[in-house]
């Protein structure tokens, strides 16, 4: 017997000699199917389907095993018309391979009446006889065809009924406050006995640390999702699956609302259409909620999402060739579109830039009027001088830093000394553990070198990144210990005062463009540019903004720019 396990990567093309050999040697084609990948992997019913089909061919038709070709379908749905093994088997019989098409039961052939009739018609039109092991079908007997069609309708009904009962059972379980199975959620463990989520204390602390990093930064640095993933990897914190932290993994975790204390069931629905699963999002009013342990409140979660959205806007697009202090922060007050770096004005002789501009992205959108085809600009108005806008916003930032205590206290939020101490202690402990692991790894490499098991080049290649990571971790550990000592001695108010004094010293010494950008990103949430007015939305005043009465452009050489 020849067995073909056909999947969607099957790409064998038969030569004329191979096809001729099959046409002359094969008398029957067996089709066997299982419906899930797990069944396909373990072969739960494939062997029995083939064995029973061979037994029928030998006893009833006296066809030996060597005259049979078995085509195996692994993990495909019965209502899918595009199954690779089925298409292969049908193509073979249409080429004249075999005169009997053997299947265990009609529901192995199809679980959809319309599809069953279509496949049956193709086989009979090829001059091939359909043989079912568990029932007889006579194309010339009306009663036999009626029973065959009823069987197809019943198979389709049973499939739909099983899916409906399964959904109803899961919904009933949710109504009783239980979760009907769930994929891995970082920070929780699934209690199978009670069908609910329970706290994973280690992962909960990591999650809270991630939230703190994104909202408040780490060691004075703004943290993006990418830098959070890098920092977790450096600390040696295990990833949810595998040994790698991905930016997408961090994003999925911090955007999940389950950590506010509510697990939502039924947000999406899996529908099967022509054998293919389609995930459809359901309206919010149809979701079912189950209470779970909360790690953050709703207000913190919304602040977290706003921060993530802001980080995405700030880091999008290509990096401009010249420093734009407000990259990713600016919106157009005329149309609400994002403001980007525009084309500069240039010297006619040398071609060197004279002035650089912020430009509304809505001005360049390709919009055309129905009927005339005329291009319509979504935003009409002048550009804004980059140096004028940046200078005004930077002067505003400097004025804020002069009286920064209240602003910084509102940015950091009302966080108790005890909570902050706990967070710093947890971070210090993780850093101590990471440093110990790196030192132990360095010691192992040195021992291997001493025993002559690795040469100098291998030792250098291994120690170079190891020492770099160890130096970074040691530096972070020192900063954590300094912060812990400061909190223990002076409390939260002392920390704010020290930070303000540090900012003032920072400004007095003069700073570069990248440092200015970091401060602006920390203190400014959004800047809206009107034709002659700048609106600055700060990080410490929700919904409030400041209008700049002295923001009108008075510089010479403005050209066609606004402000």
TrEMBL record:
The record's keywords, sorted A to Z, are: Coiled coil, DNA integration, DNA recombination, DNA-binding
- What InterPro entries is this protein classified in? DNA_bind_recomb_sf (IPR038109), DNA_bind_recombinase_dom (IPR011109), Recombinase_CS (IPR006118), Resolv_N (IPR006119), Resolvase-like_N_sf (IPR036162), SSR_resolvase (IPR050639), Zn_ribbon_recom_dom (IPR025827)
Asked if the Swiss-Prot or TrEMBL record annotates the protein with the keyword DNA-binding, the reply is yes
Coiled-coil positions: 463-490
**The Recombinase domain covers which part of the protein?**
185-314
| Keyword ATP-binding tagged | no
Domain named Resolvase/invertase-type recombinase catalytic: which ranges? 27-177
Record-annotated active site: 35 (o-(5'-phospho-dna)-serine intermediate)
The protein's name in its UniProt record = Recombinase family protein
One Pfam family, please name it. Recombinase
Which superkingdom is the protein from? Bacteria
């Amino acid at each position: 017997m020849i067995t073909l396990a056909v999947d969607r990567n099957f790409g064998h093309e038969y030569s004329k000699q191979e096809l001729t050999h099959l046409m002359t040697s094969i008398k029957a084609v067996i089709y066997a199917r299982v419906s899930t990948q797990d069944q396909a992997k373990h072969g739960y019913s494939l062997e029995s389907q083939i064995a029973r089909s061979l037994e029928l061919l030998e006893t009833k038709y006296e066809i030996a095993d060597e005259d049979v070709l078995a085509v195996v379908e692994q993990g495909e749905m019965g209502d899918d018309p595009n199954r690779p093994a089925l298409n292969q088997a049908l193509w073979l019989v249409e080429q004249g391979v075999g005169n009997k098409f053997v299947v265990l039961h009609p529901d192995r052939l199809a679980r959809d009446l319309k599809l069953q009739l279509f496949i049956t018609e193709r086989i009979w039109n090829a001059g091939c006889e359909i043989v079912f092991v568990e029932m007889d079908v006579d194309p010339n007997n009306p009663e036999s065809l009626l029973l065959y069609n009823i069987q197809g309708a019943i198979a389709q009904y049973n499939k739909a009924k099983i899916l409906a009962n399964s959904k109803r059972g899961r919904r009933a379980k949710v109504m009783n406050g239980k979760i009907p199975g769930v994929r891995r959620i970082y920070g929780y463990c699934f209690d199978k006995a009670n069908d609910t989520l329970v706290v994973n204390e280690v992962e909960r602390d990591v999650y809270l640390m991630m939230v703190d990093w994104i909202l408040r930064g780490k060691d004075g640095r703004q943290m993006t999702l990418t830098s959070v993933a890098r920092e977790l990897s450096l600390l040696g914190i295990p990833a949810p699956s595998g040994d790698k932290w991905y930016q997408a993994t961090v994003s999925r975790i911090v955007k999940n609302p389950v950590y506010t204390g509510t697990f939502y069931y039924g947000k999406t629905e899996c529908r099967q259409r022509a054998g293919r699963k389609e995930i459809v999002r359901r309206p919010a009013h149809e979701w079912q909620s189950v209470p779970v342990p909360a790690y953050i409140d709703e207000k913190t979660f919304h602040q977290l999402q706003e921060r993530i959205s802001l980080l995405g806007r700030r880091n999008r697009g290509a990096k401009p060739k010249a420093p734009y202090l407000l990259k990713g922060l600016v919106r157009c007050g005329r149309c609400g579109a994002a403001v980007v770096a525009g084309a500069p004005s240039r010297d006619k002789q040398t071609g060197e830039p004279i002035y650089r501009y912020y430009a509304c992205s809505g001005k360049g959108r390709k919009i055309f009027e129905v009927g005339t085809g005329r291009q319509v600009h979504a935003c009409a108005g002048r550009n804004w001088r980059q140096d004028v806008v940046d200078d005004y916003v930077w002067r505003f930032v400097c004025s804020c830093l002069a009286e920064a205590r209240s602003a910084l206290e509102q940015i950091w939020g009302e966080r108790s000394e005890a909570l902050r101490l706990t967070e710093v202690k947890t971070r210090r402990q993780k850093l101590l553990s990471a440093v110990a692991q790196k030192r132990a790894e360095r010691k192992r490499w040195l021992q291997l070198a001493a025993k002559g098991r690795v040469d100098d080049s291998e030792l250098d290649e291994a120690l170079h990144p190891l020492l770099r990571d160890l130096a970074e971790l040691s530096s972070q550990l020192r900063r954590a210990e300094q912060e812990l000592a400061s909190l223990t001695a002076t409390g939260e108010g002392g920390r704010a005062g020290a930070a303000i004094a540090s900012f003032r010293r920072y400004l007095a010494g003069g700073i570069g463009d990248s440092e200015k950008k970091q401060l602006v990103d920390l203190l400014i949430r959004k800047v809206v540019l009107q034709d002659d007015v700048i609106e600055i939305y700060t990080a410490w005043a929700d919904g409030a903004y400041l209008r700049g009465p002295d923001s009108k452009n008075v510089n010479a050489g403005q050209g066609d720019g606004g402000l």
